[in-house]
């Protein structure tokens, strides 16, 4: 989804002329309960064509490398809980994420600050568990939780999140 009707809100080009009110109305087309069901929000800045052409593919992970990392993470999940992280119940999430008190506090603070629902918090925990699995971490580290919270910043960065 675009950040605003013209698609340029937040872009460094300054092309966006949408009013805060237009942006809010545009974003409200997606209801809260629907947004709650989305796992990852990623803000992607528009790149000029010349930059895209110059991107160094040699440094990027190949699809085969990513695929084997994902397979390994899935194996870890099946071994630990006999299912994928994405279908964990709220009850089993606590036992499987085993957040430290500090991380629990971090999540609670973020939830209050950004108005995350309980459902959204559970999504963040599942994403954090998955990031930890992809990184080969046995426990969910605070950096995994921070990264998972970062995937909700599509919402957090929207002007309407603070109005
Ligand atoms: Zn705009």
UniProtKB/TrEMBL annotation:
Ranges for domain Mg chelatase-related protein C-terminal: 61-152
One Pfam family linked to the record: Mg_chelatase
GO molecular function, one term: ATP binding
Span of domain Magnesium chelatase ChlI-like catalytic: 1-51
Coiled-coil residues: none
Protein name: Magnesium chelatase family protein
Organism: Neptunomonas antarctica
């Amino acid at each position: 989804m675009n950040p605003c009707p013209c698609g340029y809100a937040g872009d460094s080009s300054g092309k966006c002329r949408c009013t805060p009110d237009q942006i809010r109305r545009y974003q409200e087309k997606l209801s809260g309960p629907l947004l709650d069901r989305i796992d990852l929000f990623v803000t992607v800045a528009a790149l000029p064509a010349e930059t895209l052409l110059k991107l160094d593919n040699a440094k990027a992970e190949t699809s085969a490398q990513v695929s084997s990392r994902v397979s390994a993470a899935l194996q870890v999940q099946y071994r630990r809980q006999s299912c994928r992280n994405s279908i964990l119940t709220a009850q089993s999430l606590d036992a499987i994420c085993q957040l430290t008190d500090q991380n629990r506090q971090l999540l609670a603070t973020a939830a209050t600050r950004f108005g995350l629902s309980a459902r959204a918090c559970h999504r963040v925990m599942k994403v954090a568990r998955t990031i930890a699995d992809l990184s080969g971490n046995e426990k969910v580290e605070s950096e995994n939780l921070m990264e998972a919270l970062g995937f909700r910043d599509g919402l957090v960065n929207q002007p309407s999140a603070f109005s």
